[in-house]
């Protein structure tokens, strides 16, 4: 159902926003081009439509807002992949009654490329998409900004302005990141804001670099309690087995990984009627792999020891008395891949200790429970 809505809306939007008023003769080369500014003066035409081109020569984090609208009801959309020339060709062939020369492959590519990257308005109630201004990350490329009004323009006037400026927030999802090719690079340990425009957007891709072997963790909190799906792929785009857990509105995905580039796929089947946007955040980090530990427990404590292997030189190892990590029994820094620690903390009857390890460039490992048997 959602795919059908997307398909229908694609045609409706193109026809109503671009082709009305004999604008089918336009091409992307002839569209007005605007530069980033806090006040871009514009005029709505007789059909209640205005559109212009925004050319980005590099990726940007941008802020959009409708200004000087007064009593005019305005809807603004930022569109990518709008192939006006192809649509002109289809329209001309239809008007002339000739067979279409547009191939199925061309049409599928057109529908795949067409995206509404952003939608805001100054409407209220059910008419509104829920945003009057917004921040968005956009890749390098050409975008068409379409503004539509159903107000009485003779009464309220045709002039308005729009603000399109740079945002200082660089941790915003960069649209469209809906494929491996356009996956957004993210830095480990940093939280990025992201969203689905649920009518058109149902998948996001992120790309992260893992410097060494460890346990990758992806954490995401959804503002509304909607069902989300998370998947992980390696450099070869092969899906990796993961464990995904949900607690309240927060999802956590984990998987053992080696050094390399990994892709995170986030998707949702949500279709929100009261707000067209589903907002979430995403944070990725890599935990140190838990080292292998063996315990030697002999009667008395003179010859007791712990042998820890699989360490990175410089890794910090901490042994705790309790699972809540309140009491530290010992702390050591590895000088090689193997560490032998003499200890007087083992009990003759046997028991448990708890260990963590942290490599220099990674997060602390999960807490490992070390059970040891009675002394011999």
Describe the model.
The protein has helices at 2-19, 84-96, 104-113, 153-156, and strands at residues 33-34, 37-43, 49-56, 60-67, 74-80, 115-121, 133-138, 141-149, 159-166, 174-175, 184-185, 191-197, 203-210, 214-221, 228-233, 239-240, 243-247, 250-257, 260-268, 277-288, 292-296, 305-309, 316-320, 328-333, 338-342, 351-358, 368-372. The protein is mostly beta strands. The strands form 6 sheets. It has a 5-stranded mixed β-sheet with strand order 1-3-8-5-6. Strands 2-9-4-7-10 form a 5-stranded mixed β-sheet, with no helix packed on it. The protein is elongated, with a radius of gyration of 28 Å.
Shape from CA axes? Answer: elongated
Unreliable stretches: 1-12, 14-26
DSSP strand tally = 27
The share of residues in helices is: 10-25%
- Give the strand order of the largest sheet, numbering strands 1, 2, ... along the chain: 1-3-8-5-6
Q: How confident overall, as mean pLDDT?
A: 85
Main β-sheet: number of strands, strand sense, barrel status? 5 strands, mixed
Strand content: over 45%
C-alpha end-to-end distance: 68 Å
With helices defined by DSSP (H or I, 4 residues minimum), what is the helix count? 4
Radius of gyration: 28 Å
Structural class of the secondary structure composition? Answer: mainly beta
Structure summary:
The chain is built from four helices and 27 strands.
